[in-house]
Write a structure and sequence with these properties.
By secondary structure, the chain is mainly alpha-helical. The protein has 1 helix and no strands. The termini are far apart.
């Protein structure tokens, strides 16, 4: 009877040890999975930060190009306005000097 009881307790002890081993091993795997998830999250954060930085740079570059275009348009407008005024003065001079309204 004592041998059967000892044998049963031995089996329970081995089963308990195996169960503890499996639980600890699965706990390590869970910790490993959690760490991998954290790595993925950090990677996503880095990618998101990079996207935001590039978007900011893109908007900054677009604004700079728009300012340059506006400046160039203003310069061209001023040049055309001056040339038109000069042409109008020449036409008016020709009208007055010829006394005829050909223009």
């Amino acid at each position: 009877m004592e041998q059967i009881l000892a044998f049963g307790l031995g089996i329970m002890l081995v089963t308990t040890i195996v169960l503890v081993y499996v639980v600890l091993k699965s706990g390590k795997q869970v910790s490993k999975c959690v760490e991998q998830l954290r790595d993925v999250e950090r990677t996503f954060d880095n990618v998101w930060r990079e996207i935001n930085d590039r978007e900011t740079d893109l908007h900054r570059n677009i604004d700079e190009v728009n300012r340059k275009i506006d400046s160039r348009v203003d310069k061209l407008y001023d040049t055309i306005s001056r040339e038109l005024e000069e042409t109008n003065r020449k036409v008016e001079f020709l009208r007055k000097s010829t006394g005829k309204d050909y223009f």
